[in-house]
Amino acid sequence: MANCHVAYQWSFPAFLYSQMQVDNTTSDEMLLSESGQGILDKESVTDLELKEKEQIGYAFAQRYRDTGDLNDLDAAVRIHQDIVELTPADHLNRPGRLHNLAISLKDRYERLGGLRDLEAALQRNQEAVDLMPIDHPDRACWLVSLAISFRDRYRRLGDMNDLEAALQKGEEAVDLMPADHPDRADQLHDLAISFTDRYQMLGDIEDLDTALRKGQEALDLIPAGHLNRARYLHGLAIAFTHQYRQSKDMKDLEAALQKDQEALGITPEDHTDRAYWLQGLGMSLINRYHRLGDRKDLEAALQRNQEAVNLTPVDHPERASRLQALAASLRNQYQRLGDMKDLEAALQSNQEAVNLTPVDHPGRAGRLENLAKSFHDRYQRLGDMKDLEAALQKYEEAIALTPADHPKRASRLYNLAVSLSGRYQKLGDMKDLEAALQKNQEALDLTPADNPGRPSQLTIHAILLSDQYQRLGDVKDLEAALQKAQEAMDLTPEDHPDRAIQLQTLAVSFWNRYQEVGDVKDLEAALQRYREAVDLTLADNPDRADRLYSLAVSFLHRYERLGDAMDLEAALQRYQEAVDLTLADNPDRADRLYSLAVSFSHRYERLGDIMDLEAALQRYQEAVDLTLADNPDRADRLYSLAVSFLHRYERLGDIMDLEAALQRHKEALDLIPDHPERADQLHGLAVSFLHRYWRLGDIMDLEAALQRGQEAVDLTPVDHPDRASRLQGLGSSFANRYQRLGNIKDLDSAVQKYQEAVDLTPTDDPHREGRLQGLAMSFENRYQRLGDLKDLEGAVDLTPSDHPDRARQLHNLAVSFRDQYRTLGDMKDLEAALQRDQEALDLTQADDPDRVNWLQSLAISFTDQYQRLGHTKDLEAALQRDQEVMELTPADHPERANRLENLGISLSDRYKRLGGIKDLEAAVQRHQEAVNLTPLDHPDRPGRLQSLAVSLRDRYRRLGDMEDLEAALQGDQEALDQTPADHPDRSSQLQNLAICFTRRYRRLGDMTDLETALQRYQDAVNLSPPDHPDRSNQLQNLALCFTDRYQRLGDMKDLEASVQNFQEALNLTPEEHPDRSHRLGGLAVSLRDRYQRLGDVRDLEVALQRGQEDVDLTPEDHPNRSRVLQSLALSLEDYYRKFQNTENLERVHSCYDESFKTQAHPNPETSWQAAVMWASFSEEFQPTYCSTAFSAAFNLLPELLWIGHSIPMRQDTIRRLDLGNITSTATRACIRVSDLISAVQLFEQGLATIFQQIMQLKPDLDKLPPEQADKLQKLSSELYSGMANNPSNVAQERQELLQAIRRQPDFEHFLLPQPYRVLHHASQGGPVVLLNSDENDCDGIIILNPVSNPVHVPLPNVTLELLQYQQSTLKELLNLCGVRTRGESPATRVFGYREGFNFRTKSIEEHFVELLTWLWKNVVEPVYQVLASHNIHKGRLWWLPSSSFTGLPLHACPPTDQFIHSYTASLSSLLEARGKKPSNTQYKIGVVGVTHTGHRGKNYLEGVKEEANNICSIIKDPNLAIKCLIGEEATPAAVKNQLQNCSWVHLACHGVQDLKDPTKSHLLLYDGELDLETILRMPLSNAEFVFLAACQTAMGDVHLLNESFHLGGGFIAAGFRGAIGTLWSMSDQDGPLVAQTVYSHLFQHGRQPQASDAAEALQVAVNRLKAQNAPYERWIPFIHMGV
């Protein structure tokens, strides 16, 4: 393009060019016409015609240069080709015409890249030179053209021979050219270019020096403003660039940049060569950017390269080169800013450059290489394997196009090796690693020892060998890697600018060997090399920051190895220096900030200083902020930032940090949808989700953790080094979901993942222990679910004993031994568990956070040992540890709920052993707290609900409160509802729910409950595998339920099912298993039932055998021993009935007797039933034992009627126990054997039990030691007043105090049921008549006086049916009489015959006479006769009726005046009233007259005001204070105050008996009411006598006849010594009369009244009514109670 092109322009005809410009639109026609004329005859053509034709060729060539129209160029080539063919070989102008053709062919080659054009141009140039005489003046010019063609072919094909030929021709041309020749500059320039090419090929610095010298000479020959000067400047700039790369001298780089800028400055904007200079300037700017890192240079380079491309036509041959340069600039900007648009644009430009490059073009290989680099960049950014595969394909194509001896082949092989290494890192395929090593070895083999590129190849080879070592473990590879790194170092001179780089590379190799071998010498060597590299690097060297960074890495690792804090400080210092040297917009700043943050994190872990964690977070955040959204490193930095947020969350507990961690993890993951590091990011995100799940318990977080963990594993190749850790994380997530939902598939998956992780982990890997531990825990969980011993054995085998974290491992080993014990029952395993638990605790400091866990585990082991051996010391030890655990657990601790649950279990165990109600209450409380602390959707909530339900069920069994049973059932149901169908705990929850339904069935008798229980039991069994450790217990419960249904329905199928299930349960229970006794006992019961049904004595014999085995296996102090003995006794009963063996009879009594001598009765109601059965058996076969048996039953009443319960609950228990009928039966049985003393004692224990308990809350404390007296007074007062926060606990504490008191001399019977020698003192004022009604006999017993034995009064004509008939008769009579509530009807109401009554034969009066006559003849008269036989004919007489005698008007039988009649609810109440000391204060009399109960005269009572006034007028003694509350004054508060302050109280008001809840019976007062329960809890210390001038005040509950639950009895129990009340409604007119008469009699002669005179006063008043001919229904209801 140099000389000949200039000549071309000089010889071009101006006229033709002018014509072409003028007629531009007709150029195609001209070309066609001219070319048509070009077909000339070689024989006839003239030289003139050829010259004209030649001129046309020139014209086309010139126009092509001006317009770029390829048609013009093709025309020029064709014309010049024709001319050459028409020119004879010996023609003088043939060389010139060959030269012209060569120039046009070269132009077309440069445009289209066709190799044939290049070969043809070279051939024509060679022919021209060969035809040219040596001394021809144009020979130099044509030699230059020939040299350029050789150089072009060299650049196309890479053949060094062509380059040598180019240099030879060029030097020959220069030698032929005079020093002052105008073309000499061109020839020197072209020669310089060739020398530059050879330098690039061979690296000989002399060639570069020559190129610079020739280029400068050429430039010096061209004037400053000459147009060709730009080409020379550009060529010189290229040479300076190469020299800069060799010397790293900024002067060379600045010189290159100056030359390129000058070239561009002198080139017009529309010049065709401007694109060349723009491209050159872009290259120089890129070089300076690489050196200085100034973004302005990068931006300017990108701008120049873009302009160059824009100026280049689409089909221009240089467009590919310029696109390539543009792509290089874009790639640099992407690497700086991380903008994906730049990466995509670079890849697109490289792809377009390749597409524009012919297959055989010499530049194609280089462009394919650049395209491969772009694909590789995108792979590194996005992780898409398609990009990596494309990169590999392009590298391979580039290499295929590169000859074996091509200078670029080695570098391309090197790049291919790098990409193969990347694919190996992603997929782990050894073939890739082997291929990478092979390709790099080829590169090394092609690279001379002194080649500057060899150290880089040696370095990558060292890296590949290290990878192979890590994969295969061959130490030879590691050593070879280090050797290669050392060789690279050795090849680099000490003063070489790259020496610091090579030192750094060698340091990396030493570091790698250190990591693999662990020899600290290698770490020291690495540190030394890094130090040397830093020392060789000037302060302003841009690489200094990077080398400081590497040095910091080494210091950090030595710190991790040796723990020297100075290394950590050195690392931090170097990192900080590196950051300080890094400009704010430097692309490496983010990375260095990131590493500095890592060091701060390490120091935080070392020292725990929160400031370091904050610094780490700050640096991580800065690094993230500097990283563009699509930067490939942003994901990693977000990940680390997330981890730091997680650490701060773990330190401070701020949920915001946890949320921030999750957010950063999510952002990181979103940035790399298909990136090779996506697996890492997924794993990190999974960990954060797991933390939030642990914090909040949200199942969605657990699902997210599992999903991300699974994705991470799926993306990790089987032989990837991180696969084990990701499998471990996934296994943990599966284990957590199993624990939450109970799906066995999750547990199996956890085992599988942990097993895979362990299998992939070398035995000496430090992470192996954690993976083994996870696997062991999963085995344990599966064992607990399925009961397969192999899982348990696997867990034990996986637990190492020499791990540095010995305490934790000892704990895990203890858990495994404990589980194995629970399966096999081998005490050695339990002892081993206890030993390991204790060792773990002993190894743990008091302030160690794990200590609480070891304490908890030790408590569990002690609990298991207690349950096996029954030693209370183990129970106390377990409870002590559990309490320590709670003391160490803050109120807001996440484990508090779990620890509360464990403490509750220990308290329950102690309750079951010792029977302390406080333990049971505390257990319920702890379990309730645990439930309250557990979120509704928490995985542990069902288990805690279940534990609470068990404690509530225990309390129900103890105290009988239905609310506890309903709450237990609700808790069990809720637990079941929250448990998936396949959860491991579902079977136990079904079983517990079934137990609750069974209990409710036994309480209420609803068959629906029994059927539901049976279904739940069956479901539980169906869910348990045949070898599950809990199956035997489930079968036992199922058998019990079949027994219940059999006993209800009598279906033999149920009985057979019961026997079968008990037998199967027993078969599954090892002989030494602690639960074997339960199964033996249950089987014995079912066999006994079958014997009773079928009569097969073999069943009875086996039942006896099993029952005896049950007894033998139960320790004497075991709480269940009483139940076991009672069960055996039942079998012995049947055996005695069958064989009448005296020995068996004695064994029956012996078993029962021993059972009731035990301290503990876990279920007192069951023991009550057993005692009643014993009594029944005794009455049938050996009646002398009846009193003993019934006494055993009645001694249980304090437990059954627990004083800590509400009165309604105790009343319900009385009904359920059928206490009234049992009392009657017990009394009758004792009478039958003439044991009247026992009869009286049992009769007393069964009567007015609740009132007796109330009276015990006001005991005489004078004889007690002061401290005990004060404490008992306090506890009793709390219960009496109803103000106790926890009545059951107060009652238990009171019971314990009473037991302590009774252990003292003379207090053995303190507040216990009184013996007869005390009870007979109730007859101090007169005989007391006890009336007992039983379905077989009715009897009376008279206590004549305090010194006599009781006397039996047979009542042969009285039966239970007759008594009930008389009760019904009385009720009908009262209905006919219109008995009503006071105030319902006028006081003057006349009683007559009622509809439905048989008035035709008898009047109401006659019916009353008949009733009273029957009572006289059959009840009262026999009593009077016995009294008369003991010379008792008159005086006071107390009636103590029971059962159906209650409510009958015994006092009204004529002769009514023989005795003064009173009633009493019990002997104890009469004793209490007699023994009460009179108040020391002045008597006060309170009168209450409720004329109406509300506004506008609501419930108006006629006569009340008159009645009150009459009383006040009678009491005239000035020493007696009287207080009247009339009308609106009689409010509940005022009346309560009067009751507490007055000794004598008269209440004229409405009285209402509540038959559903007697405690709610009440007095209607003004604007309110006063109920019986309130009265019972009032402290009435001054009380003497009360007159209840109200209706129904002595009417009791028909279902609680023996309890005397009426208002009158209540006032006596509350403290009044005596009371007047009514059996039914009184007439309004009778109230004033009776009251006036009673008080007139009491206060006659002005004396102070005595409570003991009230009965006589009432008799006087009733006689007055009778004297006025009042009908029976008006005078009979008035009765006296008390003294």
TrEMBL record:
Superkingdom of source: Eukaryota
Annotated ranges, domain CHAT: 1410-1682
One Pfam family matching this protein: CHAT
UniProt cross-references to Gene3D superfamilies, sorted A to Z: IL-4 antagonist (De novo design) like domain (1.20.120.660), Tetratricopeptide repeat domain (1.25.40.10)
Protein name: CHAT domain-containing protein
Organism from which the protein derives: Mycena maculata
